[in-house]
Structure formats: structure tokens, C-alpha cells
Automatic annotation (TrEMBL):
It comes from the Bacteria. InterPro entries: Metal_resp_DNA-bind_regulator, Tscrpt_reg_PadR_N, WH-like_DNA-bd_sf, WH_DNA-bd_sf. Coiled coil: none annotated. This is PadR family transcriptional regulator. Pfam families: PadR. Residues 8-81 form the Transcription regulator PadR N-terminal domain.
């Protein structure tokens, strides 16, 4: 749920104000249904839930409002929640939820470069610690008479993922340190296409 919340808050923050079907359409171009395990139909429910909790403001189109024509923008609480989730997903390694870092990658440009670099260093240290502990976790499984031997392969596949993420994190850190990409306070290297935003706002309700 935290990954979904970050994605919804982040996509609203980029294109606000925007309609639910527009946000859904954009997120589907990110293939979130595959890597974030988001049911496309649940995007509308998620937006309404965030509005109910005060993280989004619902903007209706005058007295002739029709279902599906509610647009959304972040509230002050929504902005705070966005950065709280983003920083949590960036700084904390969770090997069983790789989608959290993938979601964070979508919005790293909202943070300053020095924070991103420091967080990547922290992630490297966490992953290295996990890999150092892996042989001892395996030994515990292998010496426990009540645990089937094949359970150790669950630890090994997790360690393999950790090694892959460690390689990528080191390489990504080096690219960021070398000046790749744009972060908060720097000239942007990407902005939403104004023509696309205008098209969204003028498009009739499907």
C-alpha cells in the first residue's frame, strides 16, 4: 500500500490538477500493474482514499459536475506525506519489496543531489551488512533439525537479489556523483510536455 500511495501522490504532484482517468492512463504507461502490483481499477479507489485522509484535494467542475470529472491536487499534508514516503523508500532497504525503490526512483529528482548520494551510500552499507549475515542465517537453517533443508534456498535467492542490487546501487551512486540526471535546485533535464497536459484537460470524459 505504501508503494501505491507514493506513486499516486507523486503522479498527482507532477501533473496537478489532473483527473483520475488521466492519472490512471499515465501510470499505466509506467507499467505499474506489473512491477508495483497495482490493479488499474484500484487507482481510482486509491485517489478517493487519499482525498478522504486529507492528502489530496478534490476539485469539481462547477454545478454540472459529472462522475469522473473530479480533479486532484496535493494538500499540505499530502506534500508532507509524499516526501516522508519517498525518503523512507529511498533510505530503507527491503529485499522483499523491490517495488519500493523502483517507485522512489520515479521521484528522486524532487530531492537534492547530496541527499540522494548519502542515501545511496546508506543503502550500500545496509546491503553489504545483509550479505555478511547471509552465511550465518544459512547455518542456522542447516543446523535446525525442525527446518527442511531446501528452506536455505529461500535465503540464497534473497542473497542473489541483494548482490544484484548492490552492484546496481554502486553504479548508480557513481553516475549521480559524476553529475548524471537533474535533482532539486538544479536546471531540470525533464518537464511534463505542456501539450500533453493541455490535451488531458481538454479530453472529454470517456
Amino acid at each position: 500500500m505504501s508503494t501505491t500511495r507514493l506513486l499516486l501522490l507523486g503522479i498527482v504532484r507532477i501533473f496537478q490538477p489532473a483527473y483520475g482517468y488521466q492519472l490512471r492512463r499515465e501510470l499505466l504507461t509506467w507499467n505499474v500493474q506489473d512491477w508495483a502490483n497495482i490493479n488499474p481499477g484500484s487507482i481510482y479507489t486509491g485517489l478517493r482514499t487519499l482525498a478522504k485522509h486529507g492528502y489530496l484535494a478534490e476539485l469539481e467542475e462547477g454545478p454540472g459536475h459529472r462522475p469522473g470529472r473530479t480533479s486532484y491536487k496535493l494538500t499540505v499534508d499530502g506534500e508532507t506525506e509524499f516526501f516522508s514516503l519517498l525518503r523512507h523508500h529511498l533510505w530503507a532497504v527491503d529485499g522483499f519489496h523491490p517495488d519500493r525503490m523502483q517507485a522512489a526512483l520515479s521521484f528522486l529528482w524532487t530531492l537534492q543531489r547530496d541527499e540522494v548520494l548519502t542515501a545511496l551510500e546508506a543503502r550500500i552499507a545496509q546491503i553489504e551488512a545483509r550479505l555478511k549475515a547471509a552465511p550465518f542465517n544459512e547455518r542456522q537453517i542447516q543446523t535446525d533439525p525442525g527446518t527442511p533443508n531446501q528452506v536455505v534456498e529461500m535465503l540464497r535467492i534473497a542473497a542473489a537479489r541483494d548482490r544484484g542490487e548492490l552492484d546496481w546501487t554502486r553504479e548508480f551512486r557513481d553516475r549521480v556523483a559524476a553529475g548524471d540526471y537533474s535533482f532539486a535546485g538544479e536546471p531540470p533535464d525533464w518537464n511534463p510536455d505542456p501539450a500533453l497536459i493541455a490535451e488531458w484537460r481538454d479530453r472529454p470524459t470517456p
